[in-house]
Amino acid sequence: MALINPKKKEVQVKIVYYGPGRGGKTTNLEYINKKFKERIKGEMTTVKTYGDRTLFFDFLPVDIGKIKGYDIKVQFYTVPGQVKYNATRKLVLRGVDGIVFVADSLVVRRKMNILSLQNLNENLSSFNRRIFDVPIVLQYNKRDMEKEGIPLLSVETLENDLNKQLKAPSFVASALTGQNVVTTMKKAISLTVASLQKKLELGG
Amino acid sequence: MATNKDDITSDLDNRLDELFGEDDGEDSFVPEKKEKPQPIKQSKASSDAKEAAKPKQKAVQKQQPMQSPLENLKSSMLEMDWELTDEVIGKFLSEIDKLKTKYSSDKMIFSLLQLHESMAKYIRSKKINAHPDSMKLVHSVFEGLDKIIAAPNMTEDEKKKIAVGELKLFKAFKQKIGPAVKGAAPRIEGIDIEAIRKVIKAELSLFKEELLKEMKSMRIGR
Ligand SMILES: Nc1nc2c(ncn2[C@@H]2O[C@H](COP(=O)(O)OP(=O)(O)OP(=O)(O)O)[C@@H](O)[C@H]2O)c(=O)[nH]1
Ligand SMILES: [Mg+2]
Predict the structure, then answer these.
(1) Residue A85's domain spans which residues?
(2) Is position A101 within any domain?
(3) How confident is the model at residue B91 (pLDDT cuts 50, 70, 90)?
């Protein structure tokens, strides 16, 4: 849950990038970190191993500044997507306030996307939380690969596979080129902060 | 109250625009048709979907001539990118075997294939603990091969230049991995251990708190 400090008027929000291995979670954060290096005061922490796979997590703190008198600090995390690292995924997911689910648009990754979303659901359940109650944004990544003639899942298929029940905001994107990376992030922040509003009684 | 909420949201949205601008990827990506940064559902889901539904035709338009002899090698290389199993690496190695037979008379191609073979064997022995740069080198060797094979009229000198370049990279790589250290932990370079510690500590203290609460409530329950 968000850490709210009424005395200091500070809110710390945790947003986790979730999704199948090699889907582009780390690349999303790297893009944001690179593009806004001057404005983001915090350092990105990233732990990689063979083939750039995330070993533990990536971490990027971003100060949004004051909104209605509250200092809003967002912490972005990515989980390791590889199936075998579920304990780490659960650890990172603890206390999550908002989620970006990065799906891989490659046709060959269709099943991995579905399994990963199921895994997210299971892990949230283990904390007694419902996926429907957590602000979530879907991102259909790697759309740039269509240009190379690589078969991609159609947006309809992706929506049908992943978003039929969630009905969350969704974006096509390319973490590599940056297309819709920032849009996805902004949407996630604004959904998440809006969902905390009641707790904050901002402006009240 | 509803107005309140709108207030905050629009304040926040304005701030986010201020901080991060309104558009994406303008640096390096020029989409054929500019995607509006709106949720798909409310915008152009159907046209996007139609676009995405016909990648095959696009591929044809891109006119990839005939299939490259490296097609299978490439696809098993991409699989290695994805997950490292003996099966996947085995496929890669057997593809190299085939190509070695096919190109046995071309010295430069043959030596590049040998490089590939050594890399694949190294990766097979180390799996996830292979050096983080391993696959980069595999990709680089592949590109060298691809260049040579795609240009049948390339002179021997030009081929040699490419092969020697890759060989240099390979030698530098061998230096980097150094003499094999048995049972070494995965190498993680240049990471900020302190930052990770802080994050873990914060997580753990939260976890401890909750656990204590859980335990207390259990006792009361009894
Ligand atoms: N073409 C293309 N490649 C991408 C895109 N996003 C990520 N990639 C590539 O996909 C590979 C995996 O990306 P990562 O960001 O490391 O994926 P991840 O989701 O963090 O993977 P794990 O850490 O294993 O869970 C990298 O080689 C990226 O360069 C994209 O939008 N387009
Ligand atoms: Mg990652």
Answers:
(1) 3-198
(2) yes
(3) very high
